[in-house]
Amino acid sequence: MFxxxxxxxxxxxxxxxxxxxxxxxxxxxxxxxxxxxRRRRTIAAEDVSEAEGLRVTTPARTALDLRAExxxxxxxxxxxxxxxxxxLGDDEDLIFRLGYPAHLLDEVPGAVAALxxxxxxxxxxxxxxxxxxxxxxxxxxxxxxxxRAAFNLHLLGLHDFVQQVNIADGSRLLTRLDFLxxxxxxxxxxxxxxxxxxxxxDVMNKESRQHNRLLAMGYKxxxxxxxxVLDPKTFGQKLFLQxxxxxxxxxxxxxx
Length: 256
Fold this sequence. Notes:
By secondary structure, the protein is of the alpha/beta class. It has helices at residues 3-10, 59-70, 72-88, 92-98, 108-121, 127-134, 144-155, 194-216, 226-229, 232-242; strands spanning 22-26, 31-32, 36-40, 48-51, 54-57, 162-169, 172-181, 186-191, 220-225. 32% of the residues are buried.
């Protein structure tokens, strides 16, 4: 299997992926039915792994292939998830308890090269764009929405953000910021809805207190809803409306 079918087996996060037949590769035959799409395609043995007893493209190759099926933004989110798994594992509860290693980002270039360099070389098309995307992938995006936000920032030319930044208030941890532009003290949060379903008013009240304290400490806070990070234009308009000082930080935008 490959593409979206492989991503589902690997449990790579996606959003609104089309409900389509199972996609499999075959060296000599191409057929299509309501349940199965068989495409004539040769996949290098190095790009094939096993998931739930089935032969599928590796997570790295699957992330690369998603660009053709779901677009660059979704592929970038998949790349970030694969890098995160490589460096931190897939137990998010354990990651939360242990926190991030101090020198995690120093390991990213090596991990990205090990995961993606050879599969990109084997791509029939799109290798330059794929290499550009993986060079920006980080293990610090904790959700599909955060990866989409990071992708939008790169599109805008805002590359100098940091992620998962702990903010102390005296001797205690106040909060952890999803994104921060340190020099301008502009913090970005990407809100999901599940935490409010699970935590209700207690979570809302806690975040309100944190928000007010951050403002008192001199931070500017911009919050994005999930649907706002899915549209780069909407994201950029809101960001620059609420934090116009970031315009001068824009460098060379990501061009695809």
